[in-house]
Amino acid sequence: MHVPPVVANGISTDHCVPGLPFVDDTHVPLDDPQALEAVGRGAGNGMWGRWDEEYLDGSWRAFTTDPVHRGLAWCVRYHPEFGRSVLLVRDEDAASFHTLWHDGPLLFRSGGYWWDGTTWYRPLQVWDAASETYSRRPVKSAVTVLTEDLLQSGGDPSRASVLRAGGVGTEPLQADEWKNHLALWSEFRAERKTASAISACVVGLTAPELATDVLVGLTKMAELAGMQPATLRRAMASKRSDIPQPQAVVGGRRAWSRPVIEDWLEQRFRSTDSVVATMASKGSSDTSVGVADLQAHFSAQFMSMLWNDPEARRRWARRQRNEDAVRGVSDELAWHTAAELDRIVPVDALSTVIRMAVMDEIATSGKSNLALWGTEQGAQFFGLLTSVTQMLDWLIRYRPDQAHYTISGIIGEAERRFQVPRAITVRSLRTALALDGQLPEDAYERFFQRALPPDLVE
């Protein structure tokens, strides 16, 4: 998860990104997300806008292209209790910010550390595929830094100014200079009588893991990852790099929090490529042990068929090297491969999986029917996921004998476990295959005429 760079703070923000100037945002409707969206949405000329409501807590997020400076956009994250962030970003980054703010984060600091109003978390890196969310890792001993803490050390508002969007520079402000801008922001809030108290305005966080003396440089990071520094630099330059953003720049060099690096290494350990590597065959990182075993089996079988048999070996004589001879060899090889289907696909196990998948679909349909009609038998058929239907269709086409027993088992189990009448089960299977199967309906009809129990054959 990479947080795009922020160009400037909006002067109306509650939460200030340190080191960035404040820009006049009073020309856009920050209090009305629908109106903010309308500034850019459908306006043409490269403009766009969007807003979304977080339904559980009443917060919302929205963005719009700036109506004057089309290369910039305003992003707003509002929470009824914790205030709002108003950020000026590059227009191309607005949608990314909008997405990052979904499902909890209210602001980001220190290279992806984020705050949900009560707790600080490390950058989202470790993917939990079961819940389809990133694992949330709280920061130990995190302390929230508020603007009131910084304002106590002074700042001269007369030495700063509220900028226009087009007048923002690219270099961050020095610490003493930014305090002047922060003091000007505080005066603006007092004049506008902004509701959120200064004591509720967040600047960032401090934590033991973010102390400058414990941050890790690129060379050490490469060592922890088992990589050469040059390799890590090249990886970081890639547009698809998953390497986390640095938490700070110390002495002109990028530096990372060690727990962030550890999360990154954990995600690499859990990645699909890492999982594939555990099943790689000896001598090839791209071939799984199963594929290698299958290749070895067919290689030995084909060698025996083409060379060890004297009759077959004669086909290699020059006078027999013609199209018909090659086609004959090809047909034999294809037949031997097709005949080994059970070695390629564990058909018995697949049959059980299909039957259990259909049972789950019936159970799910029963619960839906109970909610809709007050009875689990309210519908006259149950739906099947396309993927389940496709596997049943595969079994019918490749192993109709096994499909015969599988369908009979489905009909019987649905009747015993869920009291689903046989006719409804058959109608459901026929409907699913008609929609997502690869065979014509008359082919399925001929199959069902022979495969169904006697009382269901029309």
How does the SSE layout of this entry go?
Layout: E1 6-10, E2 22-23, H1 33-40, E3 49-54, E4 59-65, E5 72-79, E6 83-90, H2 94-100, E7 107-109, E8 113-115, E9 120-121, E10 127-128, E11 133-134, E12 143-146, H3 147-151, H4 175-192, E13 202-206, H5 218-225, H6 229-237, E14 248-250, E15 253-255, H7 258-270, H8 272-278, H9 289-308, H10 310-313, H11 323-339, H12 341-344, H13 347-373, H14 386-398, H15 400-418, H16 422-436, H17 441-451
Parallel strand pairs: 1-2
Antiparallel strand pairs: 1-6, 3-4, 4-5, 5-6, 7-8, 8-9, 10-11, 12-13, 14-15
C-alpha Rg (nearest Å): 32 Å
Q: What is the residue-mean pLDDT, rounded to a whole number?
A: 86
Spatial strand order of the main sheet: 2-1-6-5-4-3
Poorly predicted regions are 370-378
Sheet with the most strands, sense and barrel status: 6 strands, mixed
Task: Specify the overall morphology.
Answer: elongated
Name the quaternary structure: single chain
Number of helices: 17
Quote the distance from N terminus to C terminus: 58 Å
Number of domains: 4
> In terms of structural class, how would the helical and strand content be classed?
alpha+beta
DSSP strand content: 5-15%
Query: Based on DSSP secondary structure assignment, what is the total number of beta strands?
Result: 15
Overall description:
- There is one protein chain.
- The protein has 458 residues and is α+β, with helices and mostly antiparallel strands.
- The protein has four domains: 6-209, no CATH class; 212-275, Multidrug-efflux Transporter Regulator, Chain: A, Domain 2 (Orthogonal Bundle), CATH 1.10.1660; 289-341, no CATH class; 347-456, no CATH class.
- 45% of the residues lie in helices and 14% in strands.
- It is built from 17 helices and 15 strands.
- The strands form five sheets. A six-stranded mixed beta sheet has the order 2-1-6-5-4-3, with helices on both faces. It has a three-stranded antiparallel beta sheet with strand order 7-8-9, with no helix packed on it.
- The two termini are 58 Å apart.
- The relative contact order is 0.07.
- Residues 370-378 have low confidence and may be disordered.
